[in-house]
Each structure stands twice: as C-alpha cells, then as structure tokens.
Queue: 4 jobs
Job 1
Amino acid sequence: MTSREKVEAVAIALFLEHGYAETGLATVIDACGLSKTTFFRYIASKSEIIWYAFDEHTHRLRRLLAEADVREPVMTVIRTCVVEALRASADEHGIWMKRFIILDNSAELRAEESSQWMSWADAVSGYVAGRLGVSERGLVPASVGGAVQAAFLAALRGWQTSSEPASELLRGLDADLTPLCDVLQGWLDRQ
C-alpha cells in the first residue's frame, strides 16, 4: 500500500465509523500521524479522498473504451470495459466498496455526485456516439450511457452488504449487464 493509500484507508475507516460530515480533516490528519504539509502532499481536500478513485475509475473506463477493438459489437465492448474498469478499481481490502458506501450515504457528497455520475455516463455515451458517428448528446448515445450507468449504480448498491469476494461480484455484474446490453445492441443495430 502506498502512503496515499494508507491515508485513504485511515480516512475511510473514520468516515464509516463517525460519518463523512462529522469527521473533520484535522481528525483525519491526526489519525494518520502526519503533519498538515505531508498530508496535503497526498490529498488536496476531504472530498478528494472519495472522488479521486472515482475519477481514476472513470478515466480508466474511457481509456479502455478508446483502446477497444471496433470490430466487436458496441455493447459487448461497453459491458466488457465496464467490468474491466471496475476490476482494476477493486482492491483486496474492499476500500473501493467502502468508498462507494460513504459516497452513497453522505448528503454532503451527494452535492457533487450528479456531475461525477454524469461524467461516467458520458464516457459510455461518448463511445457510442463515436461508433455511430453522431453527437454524444443525441438520444441514442445519451440513452445508452444513462441506462448502463443506472444498471452499474444499481449493482453497486446491491453489493453494499455482500460478503462475496470482488471476483464473484464482477462475474455477477457481467451477467447482470448482459441482458441489458443485448437489448441495447438490438436497438443500436436498427439505427
């Protein structure tokens, strides 16, 4: 674990125990045993502890989509890339899920949540738009991005109390996304 990961792990444990809004940055810094200067080398703000990994995950999804084989069906690529992006985000300590639980249960973080999830959906809709040669704000790309994002979010919410290992959850995500992606691929094929 890097020093940044250690700081994040301590902060996330505190957020889960005391609540995100109730845990001040000074408490996190003290619990980490770092000076403010050292702490801020790793983390710029309290919300970054949660959003940094989310942003990295979204960038990873965009990269995987950009590198995907365009000979594959659009929705096969999207399903595969969504699962693979999450596989790369998942860690053996479950910090990724703890971070999501904090995000999903914090009113303070919800103020930023919409723009973050919109960015995630835009990664998918941008890929669809590129493959179809249309605007990503068009009906079809935006609908696909929104549908896949909603299914992904629902799956994450369903996992909050699961004790299954990440590998099983990822297999489940792939299986859960398959019927949706099959339907959406049929719709794309008619465009």
Job 2
Amino acid sequence: MPPRSPLPPRHGLQAAWVRTPDRGKESPEWETLSDFLFFKISQQAPTARMLADGRFVLTDGTPINGHEPYQPHTFIWFHRDRRDEAEVPFEIEVLYADERIVVVDKPHFLATIPRGNHVLQSVVVRVRNELGYPDASPAHRLDRLTAGVLVLTTEKKWRGAYQEAFRHRQIDKHYEALAPVSDLLEFPQTVRNHIVKERGNLQAVVYPDREPNSETLIELAERHGGTGRYKLTPLTGRTHQLRVHLNGLGIPIVGDPLYPIVQDVDLDDFSTPLQLVARELTFTDPVDASRRCFTSNHPLDWAPQ
C-alpha cells in the first residue's frame, strides 16, 4: 500500500501515484526519474509539461523536475489532466442522508463513478464537490444512461458493510422501463440466460448454451397503445442485464442507443433518455438492522401515441 498522499484531492478526486520498481535483472536501467515517468505514463508532451510545472511530487511533498537520479521503490504523486466534458444538465436529488449513507436520485446520462470520458460528470465527483461528502463512495452502480436510486456511503469505514449487502444480493431492487408491447408475449415471465459484457465492447453478448448467470422477473404493469410500462425485478446484477433481457424478447427499452443496434449518439446529446429507472431499493440496514426503503421520483416519458 502507498503512504498517505502529500497532495490534497482535486475536483473531488485523490491524487494518482506510481512507484519505481526495485532494481533487478529484468528492470530497465533508468538513469533519471524522468526516464521512468516517460516510460510509465507514456505521454511525452503531458509528462514533460507536468515536470516543468512541478506537478510531480515525492511522498514528502517535494516537487521533482525529473533530472533527479533514479531511485528504486520511490512513490511519485500527481493529478492527471482532465479532458473537457460536456456538463450533464440535470441535478442530483438527495432522497435521504445520515452519518453512514447518502441516497440520491441519479439522473440519466450521469455516470456513477469517474471513468474514461466521464470523470467530473459523475455522481461520485458531484456528491463530493457539491453536496459536501468528500469521502463519498458508491455501494453499488447504475449504468450511465439509467436513472434512479443510488446508495453511497459517507466514509470509508461504512463502505464494506453496504457493498457486501449489495454483493450478496441482500437488497430488493425494482426497476421500471418503457418498451413496446407484443401480443406474442405473456407476462409475468422470468428470463434466464448467460450474459457476458467484455471490456471494449459496447454490447453485452448472450451465450444460450452456457449455464445461466442472469435472471430477471418481468411484469407488464400498464399499457398505452403500443407501449407498456414494465416492472423489472433482477435477481442478479449483470452489466446491461435488463436491457439485454428485454431486447432478447423483441421489446427493446425506449430510447436505448445500444440495443438492438448501436447508434452513433454524441456524448453531449441529452435529448433522448433511456426509459429505464431504478425505481425502488428495499433492504435491512447491515449496521443497525433498520428497514430501509427508497423510491425514485424520476418519471418515465411515454412515447407519443
């Protein structure tokens, strides 16, 4: 584990770090710390600029210029440059907060955690910066395009208990979605299959010959013309599970840019939200055994009839 960071958080994010390896037969013979940083970070221009600006520091906070002789087992700290991001023009509503958890109603298009093209525009960073919870961390995740109830812990000491509750399926989850109605389908019905979402692929893949690893109870709750409001109860939590299961029935969720086909949608296009909401979470609190129930206020937008 690294020592304590000498740099304070920036934009709600902790500083990144790298460690120089010990000298060994298979280690390159770097002469200076800059040689190591150019090798490790692999971005010549940004690295040179950051060195010139004194943005790399040692554990005691001393800035380095890169000309220092290479030293093995040395921690170097820095904040990464952030890409420009389109601001997601929707607010986060706080449904509940106490000393252990803060429960928010996540809007569509806002990522849960900072990653890739969505760093500052993520629930975690916004909650840390805007709502005054500097150590907030999600107990579970929602897709960027999915709105609804999201539970975060306020401090690291509470994180494990709540994450374990989600990991061990001790949470009752109910979603709602708008999708076409088919007279060829009967509800309620349970969909089970084997889903794999590989890193780098936009769509998840179903392998019908493999043992099922996903399960969703699907109920048709309401119908207006050719569109239905479906209540979805997932018993597992595979990536894109609900979207894949409805698409597999031939009734893809309204506004889905990935299923059945991948559509080219700009990251700053917020005009067509995916009509999927994490409507309700119910569970027994893993710390004090109180009964918790939280409900999203996000409406579903019925397509014109």
Job 3
Amino acid sequence: MLFFNKKSSIILSLLLSLGLLVIEKAEASNFRVSPIKVSFSSKVSSQVLTVRNDSNETLRFQLHTYIWKQNTKGEMQLDATEDIVAFPGLFTLKPGQQRIVRVGTLTPVSSIEKTYRIFIEELPPEKKANQQQNGISILTKVGIPIFIQPSKQVVEGVLENIGVSKNQINFQVKNTGNVHFITQKIRVKGVGEGDKSVFDRQRNGWYVLAGTSQNYDLKMSQQECSKTRTLVIEVKTDNKVFTEKREMPKGACSASN
C-alpha cells in the first residue's frame, strides 16, 4: 500500500466520478444505507439495514453477499457465500421511499472473527416500450462490512519487516489479534541530529483484518534520507497505537537518486 501522491489522488477522484470504484461510504448520490456496519455474535444473529431513495427517480436494487478477505495491499478479495442471507434480494424504491433489508446468519462463532461484505447495487432503470436511452447512467453500489465476532475479542498488532534501501522505507502492519482494526492514521517521521525533525508524513489507513498484514512504503528524497538518523513509525488504530523506532542503517541512502 502506497503513500498517495498528487497524481494518484487525481486518478482516484476520476475513477470515483466515473462510477468505476465501489463506494465505501454508505451514502451515495442517489441513495443511503444505514447502519454502515453489521456485527453478529453468539447472541445476535440478525440485523436490519435501511435503504432510502434520495433521488427523484425510481431506483432498482439487488443484493449480493461475499466472504471478505484481504491481500497485502489491503485490497478486497471477495468470494460469493451463502453464510450470510439477505432479504429481499431484489427490490424497487420510489423517490423518497425506504425499505428495510433483513440480514442474518446461522454461521457459528469461532475463535477468530469472520468477515463478510454485503453489496447493495443499483440496477439500470427498466426500459419501457419504445423508450430510447439518452446519455450515460452512472450506477453505484455500496459495500457494508459484516463481522461475526468471537466471544473473547483481542485487539493486537505489530509493525514488522521495517527496512530502508535506496531512499525508500518499507514496513508491514500486522494484525496479531483475533478481530479487525482500522488504521486511522499512519505516521512516518525522520529525526536527525539533535532530535531535529527532517520529515513528518501522514496518511489515513483502512481495515486490517485478523491475521493479515499490509505493506507500506515511503520514498524519501536524497537529502531527507542522508539527514535522517532515526525513523519513527506510528500507527494509530481505533483503540490502540503501535510505535516502532529504527536507527537509519548504513548504505540506505542512494546517492544516484
């Protein structure tokens, strides 16, 4: 996972505007979904979602449920599942109308949190007889995380595989607990002689599921690298902070950059 630069931020905004990315927020331009997260436990096996049509048009929806995993870049890996049941799977909402969706599971609780996603996907409007399609319709789908939580929850994490080579810092955020956490802020600081700050960069993170690791890297300038004596990496989650310090290794700065 990279620290975004200006170019990648522009590309991300463009993809969102074209409707080519899944909207992580539970509020889209045409409809809203609440709550934005579903949690099951040994005592709770069903909940409801409310979908509201905020547009001036009649909207059609369909639902899909998936097992949710992550790769080392934090990207979603989804596989269709019947562990989670949602009803109704297809429905239509008139302008201003809302509908309750019932979500449930019979999957037993285990010692490690199980993670899923339910997607509420906007469908193309029904085409009436002799009706011509004008313009381009941008359809949105909203992904809601679902967690089947263990009876005893342990939130733990470590920073590992920290390395510096050719002016680049690499490290991993590993979830060593049995439930997910959210990296609210990732901060990397370079400290020079006399504890003088050389650089201080921050970015927001995302979910880190139980038992998974996510890779991060940060490119330094030649000047920043050569002036840095100590690296401080800090990851703030929703309820804990993980911090590691490393002395800058010899030969880590590349004079050719």
Job 4
Amino acid sequence: MKVLFWASAFIVFYTYVGYGLVLFVLVRLRRLIEGKRPTPIIPEGGHPSLALVVAAYNEADIMAAKIENTLALRYPEEKLSLLFVTDGSTDGTPEVIRDFPNIELMHAPERKGKINAIHRAMRQVEADVVVFTDANTYLNEDALLLLARHYQDPTVGAVSGEKRVRIEENADATAGEGMYWKYESTLKKWDSELHSVVGAAGELFSVRRSLYQPVPDDTILDDFMISMQIAQRGYRIVYEPEAYATELSSENIGEELKRKVRIAAGGIQSILRLPEAANPVKDPLLSFQYISHRVLRWTVTPFLMILALVVNGIIFATSGETFYLLLLFAQLLFYAMALAGWVLENKKIKSKIFFVPYYFCMMNYAVLMGIRRYLTGQQKAAWDKSRRKAADHTQEKTHL
C-alpha cells in the first residue's frame, strides 16, 4: 500500500511540478552545451507569403472589432492575404465582413463545425505559411512578423503564439485561468527551447502549408492534432511568446468548466490517434515531452489524486503512523480549501488563496468528465464556444 501511495503521489507531483523542474534543468544544460537557440531574422524582402485564416460562428457583435484589429497587423501587404470563414452563421456575421473588400469571405449556410470550415479554407489557400486565430481574440500588431521569422529555419514546421487571458479587476475564480496560462506559457518556452512544443493552442498558431494534413471531421482539438501531426513527421513546433492573442477570461467558472471538459475529451481522443508521438524509439525527446506535459494530465493523474487520498487513509487507519496522518491532513486541507473556493465563488466573494486550489481541482474534475464524455460518445466535435466576459473593445485594443 505504501508503494502504491508513493507511486501515485510521485506521478501527481511530477505531472504538475516535477516536469517543470526537470525541464528547467535540461534547458540550462542544453544552453551550456550548445548555447541558446538563435532568433531567426528575415532578410530584406524575404518574408514568406502568409495567409491569416479566421473561422467564425455567430460573432457579429465583435466582428467589426476583430477586423479592425486584423487590418492593423503589420506585414508586407503584397505577401499577406486575409480569409474569414463563417459557415453556419445566422446573426449577420458574413454581412459585417462583406463591408471590407480586402478580406476574402467564405460562407456556407450549413454548420459542419470549425475543422470542416478550416479544411475548406485550406483547399483554397496558396500562401507558404498559414496563421490560424479565433474570432474572439485580438493580436498584437507585430504578431505575424514574429511568427513568420521562425520559418527561416527549415526544421520548423509550426509556430505557436502565446495565449494571454485578460483578467478584470473584479474577476472571480476565473482568475485561476490567468495563473494557469502564465505557468503553461513558461513550460512552453522551455519545451520550445529544449526541442519542441507539444501541441499548439488555437487562439494563435501557424503552419507551413506544405506540411498541413487534414484531420478527421470529428476531431475535437483540431489545433492540437494539426500541429502534433507535423511534430510526428520530425519537424519542430516553436513557441513565440511575443506574438500573442488576448482574450477575456470565461464569463464564469461554469463556462470555464464546460471548456475544460471539451478539451479533456479532445485530449483523450488525440492520445488515441497519435500513437507515434508517444513512441520513444522514433523521437525520444518529443516522446518524453509529450508524455510528461500532455499524456499524464489527460489520462492517469486525476485518478491518481483520488487513489493517493484513499490509500493514504487506509495506511493511517491500519498503521496509525503519525507521518501518514500528517500527509492525510495536508491532502484534506488542500481539498477543503478547494471546497471553500467553490463556496466563495458561488457567493461572489474573492479570495485567491482558495480559488487557486478550486481551479486546480476543477481542471482535474474536467479531465474525468471529459474522458467519460468521450468514451460514451457524448462529446460533439462541433464548435461550441464558451461565453467570455463582456468588454469594451476599444479598451481591449488599447491593452494590446
């Protein structure tokens, strides 16, 4: 029982803390041996042709602001094309886009999901590099230039930007979302410097068009699958934190939970469809990063958290050892703080001390629910966006 407890506790610790520590050490060692990776510079007139693709569904209320942000992006005009896909939209989104002749519009009346819309767009795109971004995110003006420069390196097949979550001063437990993404961004920086990021976020990522491979129409995490298929072929996914997409936090913790459950369902689907990424024979370093950063989170770790608590209780009940009583107390205290965070969130009372454990437990609960939804066939691939906090878009662009 003690072996089972310590094995479970170690994997949980490694998943959320230990991998970051190991990654930190490996990156430092790599710098000592090979030096820091150089930042590519695009020669004068050498910018690759680039297409920005935005898949939007019923985003009429923010589309004008999104277009204004898009038109403000810096990139050689003769090398840039803009394509918006609005399949299934019924709220006037296509009509808003038609007022801007320099943006190409693709629209089909039937809604078949985001990935189907992207596949339609990719059959038409001819640019060397394709950048994907969401309709409800706003990019910094140099984002395209910063992404494109990495394609000077022929070993790079995809480049991911950074997702930034804008937290309002009166934010509730969704403030945990911002803290989570700051930690994730740090891990991605180190992943990228060591070898490769393991998957890109759909808010802002790019690929070489020649390496793009369509994924099945029922794919839940299309951005993750598209980028990882490129990594499986031996190309690096680079992380560019200075190219960023900013969005508001989820409207409430319920909306954030809905989003996390969908991601978890897509995570288990991706793991089942990407067996080569976990094969250490083909690419040992990619496999190590993929299993450590993704597979453990999306599979066994949430179950091991429960197992560690139960086994800890059994060990103390049968042995009476004070040490295991202290460990049990520490676990119960953590979950009590998470419970307090849930209660305070429902009462609209702010306290980050309790909201952070609450958000952490919510994420792991979402994994359990996501696995259940995927295995029971309840998770649809159709794009079901979560509601975000309302904001004044003028202020939002100033923030960028």
